[in-house]
Fold:
Amino acid sequence: MPDCHARDHADAEQDLYLSLSEIAALSWRAIRGAGRTWGEAEDGAEAAKWLARAGLDWAHALTGILSLPAASAGCPLRAGMALSDFADLPNGAAQSAQLLSDIYHPLFLLPFTAQVAARSRQVMQLDWNGASARLAPDAAPVLTGNIHAAGPLHVSIAPAFVSPTASASGAWPKYHFGAPGAGPYARLTTLMLHVTVPSSAASLAGAGAQGDDND
Structure:
């Protein structure tokens, strides 16, 4: 995997840089603020954190996903949740090839496919529009092509049928992708504020120290 995701310490001191826990918290609130369910918020936040840990641009993908209608058939968050939930069934992703049609931001399918790989202890392969991702159990993804394509795209997901020990596994980068960029961060923050309770006179009146704290 290219080393373009590694953090530049000089620039990071001047730019916004979120920790993995901050990424998860922001993503959870933004997903809920976009009107998505609690389950989508929990799974989406974990997916965003996984992508960040892999050095991938989670923020651009997430803002694109949250601009879709909540019930969109092309939403990779909803598709990924179903993929993971039903993976162990006879016709699930752990057993046979899947073809997903008209998926936006297929990058967001990677964390859910990684769950399938980890549970089934086998290598999983995703392909879309000349891009591919190979996911060995508990390893970082091995990526080729334009993985950040927005779509809509057809995505194939299937077991690679190779030994996990024999397959080349990706190494997790030293630094996660913590710089979401001003535009995506502003959009996610705006969505987050939809589930933030504004201050009131009553709440402000009870804030701060109330009385003497000396023993």
In short: Residues 13-195 form one domain. The longest helix spans residues 38-53.
